[in-house]
Design goal:
Strand content: 35-45%
Domain DUF4140: 31-138
Oligomer: single chain
Number of domains: 4
Coiled coil: 107-141
Pfam family, one: DUF4140
Domain DUF4139: 224-532
Helix content: 10-25%
Number of helices: 3
Keywords: Coiled coil, Signal
Shape: flat
Length: 538
């Protein structure tokens, strides 16, 4: 048997010797972002000769969980074993990406244009310097002639040459300005091209290498898909909730957005982006319950630390499982998570916090009211009852509130399934003034023999409309309530309230009315409390 094994190993040597190492680069083509974490899909292309080879993909970011790697080979390629290496790595020589190749070509063209502009400027400067040197020489010349006629002719010649030299210098001045402007433009273009290339620089920090055994029956341009998880990424919903009023009506538009971030250590450029509400980083199973065995024992006897089985043997208590992580509320529809596919290729740079992506507007129906609580506020507040009239679930998130173009605050928007309603306040209405006065408040004994005590209060609430439009007003106030038979409470109101025990809250009263421009409305509310003597009212 040992001889057979040795022979098999020897026969395998030529095949192993034929295997070579093929370096390949990957490109991130698709990303699915979860509230915490992301699934990244990379595409690897390489020319693979026939036979068995080792494919090295050396541009995976450090920290990729090896257990999350999933490989999908293209046609003509068979996969063997693979390993993710993050230590003892050889220096990598990655081919440039198409974006980096294009940036390099742009830089070379910009630098060539800069050299041409610099040469042109030097030629113009040489013309100017030559003309100025000629002028300086002619000025220093001291003509000498034997006769007055010869001196006059020589002087005229010098004058003509100086005029020609000065004209040449003046003629070169516009060319000099144009050449300097062209050089400045070329230098700026070169700097921009260099910055663009630097922005695409491959990271020199930690990285991981995927070492993959591949086999091809014949030479093939292999396409391999690699999928893995990235823990440092995520997204959350964010909204602009815009209220527009037109007379007595109102409309609300929900501009949906997503705040995305990632810290994988590499930039994701032109990726197909999907946003999912699934939470693979959290527990996928519900919590479990264990039998709760209770015992009694005689007083004074210490509690036992162990339990006995049916045979009387000592038995350790069943270990309690670790508590499952708390699951945040997650909207579901027909038992499935929600998925948003971003319509355009997206760019997500590493280390950039909260990049906002638009998911489009969603019109909602709204009913507005001026909420008046004069017990605490000096003005009414604009409140909108917003209904999700769409067929989409609106996820919980922060909503920034706008009345027309003006931002008035923010609101923690809860989950809104189709048909659900939310009550959202859009800030004060300064022209609706509130006042609450108490002309009467008294307490004392009641009855001939002072067998009981009584407290009476009267409040007058006023709403004044100083605006130039009518408002639907909802005035809210309260009277105390009791759950004790000996504490008797009664109230009267003029006019009577439209609703009592608003939203199930006992003693909360509401009046609904329309208030015209310049109008004032008053509500008188009185209540009394009576309790037996010898008792104290809390």
């Amino acid at each position: 048997m040992r001889r057979i094994l040795v022979l098999a190993a020897v026969l395998a040597l030529p095949q192993m010797a034929q295997a070579d190492r093929i370096a390949a680069a990957s490109r991130v083509v698709a990303v699915t972002l979860y509230p915490q974490g992301a699934e990244v899909t990379r595409e690897v292309r390489a020319q693979v000769p026939a036979g068995r080879h080792s494919l090295l993909v050396s541009d995976l970011p450090a920290g990729v969980p090896a257990q999350t790697l999933r490989l999908a080979p293209g046609e003509g390629l068979a996969l063997g074993g693979h390993a993710l290496r993050s230590g003892r790595l050889a220096p990598r020589d990655l081919p440039d990406s198409p974006e980096r190749t294009a940036a390099k070509a742009g830089l070379e063209a910009a630098e060539a244009a800069e050299r041409t502009a610099r040469t042109a400027l030097a030629a113009v400067e040489a013309r100017v310097e030559a003309a100025e040197a000629q002028v300086a020489f002619l000025r220093a010349a001291k003509p000498e002639a034997a006769t007055p006629e010869a001196l006059a002719a020589l002087t005229a010649t010098l004058g003509e040459q100086m005029l020609a030299a000065r004209s040449a210098a003046l003629a070169a001045a516009p060319d000099l300005h144009a050449a300097r402007t062209a050089l400045d433009k070329a230098e700026r273009a070169s700097a921009d091209a260099r910055a663009a290339l630097d922005a695409l620089a491959r990271p020199d920090g930690d990285y991981a290498t995927l070492d993959l055994a591949v086999t091809a029956a014949q030479a093939v341009e292999a396409v391999l898909r690699v999928t893995h998880m990235v823990p440092d990424a995520g997204w959350r919903p964010v909204y602009d909730l815009r209220l527009d009023r037109a007379g007595a009506g109102a409309s609300v538009t929900l501009d949906r957005g997503a705040l995305v971030w990632q810290g994988s250590g590499e930039d994701w450029a032109d990726v197909a982006l999907t946003l999912s509400t699934a939470r693979p980083a959290e527990g996928a199973a519900p919590a479990d319950l264990w039998p709760d065995l209770r015992r009694i024992r005689p007083e004074g006897r210490p509690a036992a630390d162990t339990r006995r089985g049916a045979g009387g043997a000592m038995m350790e208590a069943a270990p309690m499982p670790a508590p499952a992580p708390e699951m945040a509320a997650m909207p579901v529809q027909d038992g499935e998570v929600l998925v948003y596919r971003y319509p355009e290729p997206a760019d997500l740079a590493t280390g950039v916090e909260d990049l906002r992506l638009s998911l489009g507007p969603l019109p909602l129906s709204a009913r507005i009211e001026a909420r008046a609580v004069p017990r605490h506020d000096a003005t009414a507040f604009l409140v909108a009852h917003v209904t999700n009239t769409s067929d989409e679930i609106i996820l919980p998130g922060t909503a920034f509130l706008l009345r027309g173009p003006v931002m008035v605050g923010q609101h923690g928007l809860g989950l809104l399934a189709p048909g659900m309603e939310a009550e959202i306040a859009f800030g004060p209405i300064d022209g609706l003034r509130l006042k609450r006065e108490m002309p009467q408040r008294a307490e004392g004994d009641r009855g001939l023999l002072s067998s009981s005590r009584e407290r009476e209060e009267v409040a007058v609430m006023t709403v004044e409309n100083l605006t130039d439009e009518a408002w639907p007003v909802r005035l809210i106030d309260q009277v105390p309530y009791s759950e004790q038979e000996d504490l008797k409470i009664a109230f009267t109101a003029d006019p009577p309230p439209t609703q009592t025990d608003v939203e199930g809250r006992r003693g909360i009263l509401a009046w609904d009315f329309d208030l015209a421009p310049g109008a004032t409305r008053q509500v008188r509310l009185a209540h009394s409390l009576r309790w037996p003597a010898g008792m104290v009212l809390d």
